[in-house]
Amino acid sequence: MTEASVESRPAPGRSRGRGVAFAAAYLGWVLDGYETYALVLIGSQLVAELVGPHASPLYFGGLLAVQLVAWAIGGLCAGVLTDYFGRKRVLMYSILVYALFTGLSALASEYWVFLLLRVVTGLGMGAEWGPGSALVSEIWPDRSRGKGIALLQSGFGVGFLLATGAYWTLSATGAGQWRWMLVLGAVPALVALFVRRSVRESELWEQTDARRKEVRARVRRGGELGAEDRALSRFTVAAILADPVLRRRLLGLLVLSAASLIGWWAVSTWIPSFVGQAVSGQGAAKSVTTWIVLGYNFAGVLGWLVFGALADKIGRRWTIWGYFLFSLGAVWLLFAVPYGSLGTLGFFVFVNGFFTLGQMGWMATYPVELFPTHARGTGITLVFNTTRFIAAAGALLSGYLVSAFGGIQVAALAIGSVYVLGVAVTFLVGPETKGQPLR
């Protein structure tokens, strides 16, 4: 296979049901964000109830790590399935799985039961991202794909806002607050019904799938295959690894992904606890913490949207590089620079959210343009999920460092410096893809 991949893209105006398909993927990603941040917000409360009030931070780190591993496994499997069975079908079943098991986890009475249920929840959550991102990228116009994907990705931050709002609203429920948060997480089951009834499959995938079936039929008849047809006939993972261009892109993207995911999961997930410690002892400390965390999540939504606009304006690579650079600075700003007031602390948190959440917009923008349609789902989920195993270790390591050093700052500064990898590698990954058609 050559640098140019094997499929051609239909005219954007012929894509069917673009708005409905986007809405389905967006709602799935919003509710994925809700599930993710709900666990961050209720983690200490549920650990205190299920383990004990003086439980080690490692119990919370363990929840994050297990969810990350399950997310990675579910995502990797779904990436392959979405290339063979379609974007719509995998999207629907993934939403249904994580919705149902989130609701079941609200009934857990022991930590290890909860942990097991979160494994299955994580499998479904991980499976949702790949088909949704592939579907939207294949129906969106080339000239504004960066904005479209950024809008999709911003749904994750909107889910964070919903989780924070729900946490605040349900605070009056007392010790059962964390259970009600999870009950609300069962709502996405309704989205799965919407996907099944309303969303149409990507034309680009349908054309590729038809061609793959034709190639397989030729193989059964003993026909000859050219290089492009052999790529279609291979297992998707093997097709990527066998192509030197795609293999090189995959390795570079994995480095960027490691920087993004380790940086966020091992650092930013501690921000609610960090802010809570900073405002403890002050009047309405819980309310102040909630407002600052809301600001963090709102900043992340803005960061995603600005990322998309810049990616379409100045290009993917310069935008990615800039966000990594400023994410590195934002970590040091928040955890190393003394703040003299709550206003200053809130500003530091806002800046951190804009860049550390916003920089993850590259993960659904750039990779979809570097892999061909017949292996796009596989390629983007390999990038997005393989490094979650490393991020899971980072989450455990950060929990250990918080315990060892008696504070969050040292752990955050040590692990947060991983963003320098993104600064160093961005321009080595692949070509600029701004405005180019998908293949």
From TrEMBL:
Alphabetized Gene3D superfamilies for the sequence: MFS general substrate transporter like domains
Sorted UniProt keywords: Membrane, Transmembrane, Transmembrane helix
Native source species: Amycolatopsis acidicola
Presence of the UniProt keyword Transmembrane helix in the record: yes
Membrane topology qualifier: Multi-pass membrane protein
The Major facilitator superfamily (MFS) profile domain, residue ranges: 21-434
InterPro entries associated with the record: MFS_dom, MFS_sugar_transport-like, MFS_trans_sf, Sugar_transporter_CS
Chief localization: membrane
Pfam families per UniProt: Sugar_tr (PF00083)
Cellular localisation: Cell membrane
Keyword check for Metal-binding: no
Protein name: MFS transporter
GO cellular component, one term: plasma membrane
